[in-house]
Amino acid sequence: MSQPTTLAEGLAEYTDAIPEPDRPDALHQLFYGFYSRIAIIDRTTHELAHWAKHDLADVDGAGPVLTEAMRDNAVHVGRDLFAARMRTMSAMKAVSERLSALCSADDHPPFTLRRAVAFDEASGQLRSYDLSAPGEHPDLPYDPFTYDPSADAA
Question: pTM value?
């Protein structure tokens, strides 16, 4: 068997390997697993920006040239993090589409995942949120059946 070369192929292979009745729950968990990745990326980006803005002056003996070089490198790392976030959002959309093709948001087996992790920028921390309490975190998508990162925010 060849290795999947695209996200769609990998997701199809993953889904096909799971017994049919368990697929919606597995995809729900996968969706929020990707969301946890976004939480990690967001916290890392937040910390990188803080470090570049506030902490570089505290590096002993760095001098202005090295300090500027480190800021430039922080920008490059930030770009890589942003690209990883965009790829993860695309993966979430693919999972959402596959999940909605398997069952409707109103007619699905019970999901076992009860909490999701998101980055709380106000506190600078990763936090766990109850999936049965929509609105607890403003950026946490509570509808994994219709996730679309390019849709306008409501």
Answer: 0.86
